[in-house]
Structure formats: structure tokens, C-alpha cells
Amino acid sequence: MSEPTTDAPVLIAGAGPVGMTTALALHARGVESTILERDPEDRDRSGSRAIYVHGSTLRTLERIHPGLGTDLVDEGLVWPTRHTRWRGKQVFRRTYDSPGGSGDIPHFTSLPQVVTEEYMHEAVAEAGIDIHWEAEVDTVDSSSDGVTVETTDGREWNGEYLVGADGGGSQVRNEIGANFEGDQSENSFIIADIEDPDEDPLPLERLFHYDAPETDGRNVLLVPFEGGWRLDIQCFEDDDPEALTEDGRMREFVRDVMGEAYVDHITWVSTYKFLQVMADSFVDEHRRVLLAGEAAHLLAPFGARGMNSGIADADEAASAIAVAVDARTDAVARDEVELYAARREKAAEFNLNAAGQALEYLQGDDPVTVLRKEAAASLADHFESAGEWLDDAPYGPHGTPPIVSTGNY
Ligand SMILES: Cc1cc2nc3c(=O)[nH]c(=O)nc-3n(C[C@H](O)[C@H](O)[C@H](O)COP(=O)(O)OP(=O)(O)OC[C@H]3O[C@@H](n4cnc5c(N)ncnc54)[C@H](O)[C@@H]3O)c2cc1C
After folding, report:
1. Is the Cβ–Cβ distance between 215 and 233 less than 8 Å?
2. Closest CA to ligand 1's atom 6
3. What are the FAD-binding domain coordinates in residue numbering (predicted)?
4. 331 Cα to the center of ligand 1, angstroms
5. pLDDT tens sequence across 252-295
6. CATH 3.50.50.60 fits 10-76+111-184+276-359, yes or no
7. Structure confidence by residue, pLDDT tens digits, 171-191
8. Pick from 311, 401, 283, 394: nearest CA to 351
């Protein structure tokens, strides 16, 4: 066939945040990789995606590429106030003097995914890692000796390991015969990004409004990020999301929720039904192919676990592969990959459960939950803890992560 396409022992499908993090995490461990990306280099990655980056993610990025985590901190925004309303009335509001905590890396930061990816790109270039653009993975053949990938342009790529970080529609997942299992949110959600206007800025706070009068009783979540705001409106079950996102109606929503100053600053509107699924296996039968990020799991965004947990997958996949490529016995190499799968499948279950609980809480009609919400709202004037419960409940997770070895989930 064609001449050798790469000497790198590890192939990565996808130059999204998870693929790029995998490459950086391998490089930090002394293992070279090459990235195969379907899109052209001048692609447009704008759109409403991850804005909330957890402190653990920032620490991972800083550890594998010094300066990357702190660059994102410099670019991001740490909002100081949590605010919750119930049918037009404030039930909880708390402002923190030091919302990010002390130290170089805050508890979280908020910035558009497209900016996060730009910094990852720069880091990948600095590390001398190749991204092959317009190299769409078509077929994957693995054996106990390694992996052969064919891209749709007919080129063949050989490696010892392959990480499938090619997103929700992963061809790598299809090729290893793994399947998504799970379900989908009942209601649709409208997600819009709105740029900061020059005047009349809103206070920097994350607002959750239950049954907001401004949206005729739909729940509203408003989150600031550097340069703008994410507006999330939860549709009723019988809503037609397409009709609600027509230009005129969307402008009315933005005016009523955010004020006139924001109406001409809508940059992106989309509607979603969120999938809650994970692959039935994160590795192939020969333990040479590892799935990471959205190739392995898709989560509703409550709790912001999608990219954050994908970056944890990436770091752990790199850790497993770094040991496996130097292993002196096949059994040790297989064990490392199997341990990766065991850990990250557990983490995905935990994350799915957390996001699922948030979805159930938001859209379910379980009478006990409905009553608890109403009781908490009526007690919020007298007991701060009732308002705080309403403030915290829509986001997960509320339990302890299962991954004792790393604390990443
Ligand atoms: C509205 C919304 C809000 C969100 N908010 C958050 C948040 O606040 N925090 C958070 O952590 N997450 C959030 N997420 C989730 C986050 O955006 C995703 O989890 C993240 O983009 C997944 O990264 P990935 O690298 O796994 O996949 P992707 O970003 O999908 O990247 C996959 C890459 O693989 C490439 N590719 C696809 N097929 C092939 C192929 N056959 N061959 C080669 N390359 C291929 C694609 O072109 C792409 O570059 C949000 C998502 C949405 C929709």
C-alpha cells in the first residue's frame, strides 16, 4: 500500500479537546503520538459548547503542559455570585469574597470551548505533535500486536495503540463494535450564547430561575463566561423548540430575561434533547484501542461533566498507554488497558447518574420532588438552607466520586 504515514507509536482519532489532551498527556510521559482529524485546518468550531471548566481539569492541563492551565485561568472568568429565583422571587443569593479560592488554579473558570481549544492547539504545536487535517478515520483493524487505521483518503496508519477521541458519532467506536446504551431527555432545551453589550451589564452571577415569568413559566439558567452569557431555557414537554427559537421569539426571551441591551448580541442559538449514554465497552477485544471523551459517553450538561470528564479520560488513557508501550509482558500491557476501561467506565456511570439525577429533578413530575421544591421555596424566606437546596439541586454530582486512585471523574 502507501508509504509509512507516521513513526509515532500512538494514533489518536480526533483533534477536539479530548484528542488534543490525550496527545499532550502522552507527550508529558515521553510517548509520541499523531492526531488524525476529519476536519480541515481552517474549520469553524464556534457554537454553544463547554464553558465551565473544573479546577481538577485546569490542574490536569497544567500538569501535562505547564502554562496551559494558568493560560485558561487568565482567559476565563470566575463569577462570584450564586442566585436562585422561584416564580419571580429571589430564594437564594450568595456572593463569595474569594470565589475561586486561593492559589494559582481556582475551583473553576468559565470561558468558551473555542478559546480552550485554541490554547490546546498552541500547546500541541509547542510540543511538536502532528495533527493531520482532513484525515477521517474510516476503518480500524486491531490485533494483539497493534492497530491499523485507514483514512477515507486511502492512507494507512499503523500504531501500537489507538485512542478514539472522535466525538459522539465516533467511527472508532463503531469499528470496534462497541455500542451506546442509555436514553434521552424527555424535554428539549434551548441554548443561546449572547455577547456582552457595551452598556447596562448584568451583575456577574449564575442565575437559576424556576418557572420564570419571563419565559411563561419555563426554567431558565443564565451563566456568565468570559465575553458573554449562556442562556438555557428548558422547554415544556409539548413545546415546539423550532418555533420558540425563531428570531423574533428568541429576541423577546433575551429582552425579558436579560434586558434590552442584550437583544442585538445573540451569537448562537440551538436546541437539544440531551442523550445520556455510554459505550458498552471502552476498549476493543485486543486491548489496543481505547475510547475517550464523547466517543465513550454523552452526558446532559448539568454539572458540566462532558469535556471535564473527557479530559480526565484522556489523562488516564495516556497513563495506561505509557506503561503499556514499555511493558515487558503482554499481560501487563493488557492489564493497564483493562484498568483504564474499568476506571473510566465507573467514572462515566457516576457522571451519567449525576447528570441523570439533575435531569430527573428538572423535568420529572414525581410528586415528591415537586412537593419538596414547593416546600423549599415557601420556606426559603425563613431558612437559608431551603433556598440553598433549591440553588444546588439542578447541578450534579451530589455524592463522592468512585475513583479513589486519582480523584478524577
Ligand atoms: C450546550 C452544551 C454545553 C456544554 N457545556 C459543557 C461545560 O460547561 N463543561 C463541559 O465539560 N462540557 C460541556 N459540554 C460538552 C463538551 O462540549 C463536549 O463534551 C466536548 O466537546 C467533547 O470533546 P471530545 O473531544 O470528546 O469530542 P468533540 O469535541 O466532538 O471532538 C471530536 C473531534 O473528532 C473529529 N472527528 C469526528 N469523526 C472523526 C473521524 N472519523 N476521524 C477523525 N476525526 C474525527 C471531529 O471533527 C472533532 O474535531 C457542553 C456541550 C453542549 C452541547
Report:
1. yes
2. 50
3. 8-328
4. 33
5. 999 999 999 999 999 999 999 989 999 999 999 999 999 999 99
6. yes
7. 999 999 999 999 988 889 999
8. 401
